[in-house]
Design goal:
It is elongated and about 70 Å long. It is α/β, with parallel strands linked by helices. The protein has helices at residues 12-18, 22-33, 81-93, 100-107, 111-125, 190-200, 243-260, 268-280, 286-294, 303-307, and strands at residues 48-50, 57-59, 65-66, 137-145, 168-175, 180-184, 206-210, 223-227. 36% of the residues lie in helices and 13% in strands. Helix 4 (100-107) crosses helix 5 and helix 5 (111-125) packs across helix 8 (268-280). The two termini are 39 Å apart. A 5-stranded mixed beta sheet has the order 6-5-4-7-8, with helices on both faces. It has a 3-stranded antiparallel beta sheet with strand order 1-2-3, with no helix packed on it. The relative contact order is 0.15. Strand 5 and strand 6 form a beta hairpin.
Length: 308
């Protein structure tokens, strides 16, 4: 494998000229996936032979043949990698994401294919594990995400007595100047909420929340400041507020309304993962973002698993 520097691109047009054909896209992905050297995706062995077609490889240990796509979200995809690259560009650079109907038109695939592609990219974007506790000033907040009944397809409507029905509770923890983490939660009971916060936030951190009862008791482990929204107390002191995490929810809700119109609670964590990934990559350049998402495409998401 040659060790040419990784291609960077700051505009869509630069990316398109960086990948004039399918082989150039495959070479680029190969350079990213095997950054630390070639390995077999089936058994992990480092002894790998490369065929002259520049697309087929063979493991020296398990003797199996494979392409660079095996064991990634691209495995079994008939869509060429160049189109995947374009989809990655669009999903990483558009602040409110992209709808499958739009992606289908933009890259010339069916809507069903575009939908599946976007979910596989969300699957890649979803944080698989968290390596460190958040520190410093932390904003934690709860919200409900759920579409209005009238925006759903008729067969998806549950009918009658709505109110809170169909809405999914979501928790977010934002490290000021650092990382955002979000996810759905089965409920907003104190036990559940505090377990999540203690899981993600280092003891001793300054924790900003609203007055929701679920946060009561966190003062034992954190410098806990509660902002009383109902009393109109949005910013008590200049640093005691939850405006950061609240603007994250506002952005996410605009994405749902403006781009997707409605989304299934079943897939909500994937959409949250996509938004969170973009938020955490906000300081990176466009090309860097695309390469960063490409670097975490290991792990498959089959259609069967997606619709299950
Ligand atoms: Zn092998």
């Amino acid at each position: 494998m040659s060790k040419a520097p990784l291609k960077q691109f700051d505009t869509l047009i630069q990316m398109m000229s960086a990948f004039p054909d399918e082989q150039s896209a495959i070479d680029h992905f190969t350079a990213i996936r095997w950054k630390r050297g070639a390995f077999c995706p089936l058994c992990g062995a480092a002894r790998v032979y490369h065929f002259s077609d520049k697309r087929t490889h063979k493991c020296g240990d398990c003797r199996k043949r494979f392409s660079i796509k095996v064991g990634t979200i691209f495995e079994d995809s008939k869509v060429e990698l160049r189109k995947w690259m374009m989809a990655i560009w669009l999903i990483t650079s558009h602040k409110k994401g992209i709808a499958s109907t739009q992606l289908a038109k933009d890259i010339g695939v069916t809507q069903k294919t575009a939908w599946f592609m976007l979910h596989r990219l969300r699957h890649a974007a979803q944080a698989k594990s968290f390596s460190r506790p958040l520190i410093g000033e932390i904003e934690a907040d709860e919200t409900f995400i759920g579409g209005k009944e009238k925006n759903k397809h008729r067969w998806q409507r549950t009918g009658g007595k709505q109110g809170g029905a169909g809405k999914v509770p979501v928790l977010g923890v934002l490290e000021r100047g650092g990382e955002l983490r979000t996810g759905t939660t089965p409920n907003l009971a104190a036990r559940t909420v505090q377990h999540v916060i203690r899981d993600h936030v280092a003891p001793g951190a300054a924790l900003m929340t609203d007055e929701h009862g679920a946060f009561v008791g966190l003062g034992r482990d954190y410098h806990h400041h509660r902002v009383n929204h109902s009393a109109g107390e949005y910013v008590r002191q200049f640093c005691i507020h939850t405006n950061g995490i609240e603007s994250v929810w506002a952005l996410f809700k605009r994405q749902i309304i403006g781009t997707h119109h409605w989304l299934s609670p079943k897939h909500l964590n994937r959409y949250l993962g996509e938004m969170t990934w973009r938020f955490n990559a906000r300081e990176s350049g466009e090309g860097e973002r695309g390469n960063a998402l490409l670097a975490q495409t290991a792990g498959r998401l089959t259609y069967k698993a997606l619709i299950a």
